[in-house]
Amino acid sequence: MPEAEVIYSDVKLARGKKRANEAVNTSTDSTYSEIKISKTQPSTAELSEDPQQAVVRKGSKVTSERVVLVVLSVLLAAALIALCFTTFEMIKTNKKVKYLEDDKMKCDNNLTETLSKIKSCSTVQPTCPAPKVIDDPCYKCEEGWEQHGGKCYYFSTSKSSWNKSRDECRTKGGDLVKIDSREEQRFLERRLRIVMTEAEDKFWIGLTDSAVERTWLWVDGSQLHQSLTFWSKGEPDNWKGHNGEHPDGEDCARMGEQGGADDLKCWFDAFCSTPHRSICEKAAVTGKPKITCD
Ligand SMILES: [Ca+2]
Ligand SMILES: [Ca+2]
User: Fold this and answer.
1) Most buried by CB count within 10 Å: which residue of 32, 138, 150, 153?
2) Which residues surround ligand 2, an ion (CB under 5 A)?
3) Is the residue at 76 inside a domain?
């Protein structure tokens, strides 16, 4: 190798002098060609090596390559097995999730069916020669109120502030609605789709954080349960108005989504002073035993 470097150094010197002579150039090229040959020539050590040793070296190289290949194959096989196992587990989990979702839907339907059996009392009493009185519990609500699950609901037609709406509900013997279950939220959400006249025609519910910001309390003083919150996306945001004209932010909750809410989520915090319609609630009265003619 040092010999090759010496020759290359000579070549550079010849080019540096920029000889115009063609013969010299030819000579330089032939020298470079010689360098290449000298590089490809086997080293003295290689030439002097015993052919048997060379075969052993070549053999060990092939063996180590095989070992690497086997290890890689084993790793690849292990990765494939792990992938298959994970996929299988994922399919199993997805099936379980679907089964649980179906189960939940069945439970919801059963609950709705059970609640629908809580009938409103018939306003018409049959007249017949020998009426029979049967013990069939029913619930009744005053005129203008709707019965559902043993409760009466009043959807106001006029708009008032949250406080004034609450006063109006109390005057009627109830209070702003407190939502105690997902089923109740479902009933109200579906009912409001029909009652609302426009997208902004939302209804006050009995929920406020006016006492302590971000501590939402129902009108009966109970704290909002995390598992029973139905805030719309991005709510509650305690908005303070375009120019901060409401420094206290939004402290009262209203609900409703005319086109239907995603996963029943249709609560919004709003300025308590803004006039809105509202939902009042009170317990239904157990009606008289049913009278039949059978
Ligand atoms: Ca607030
Ligand atoms: Ca808001």
Assistant:
1) 153
2) 235, 237, 250, 268-269
3) no
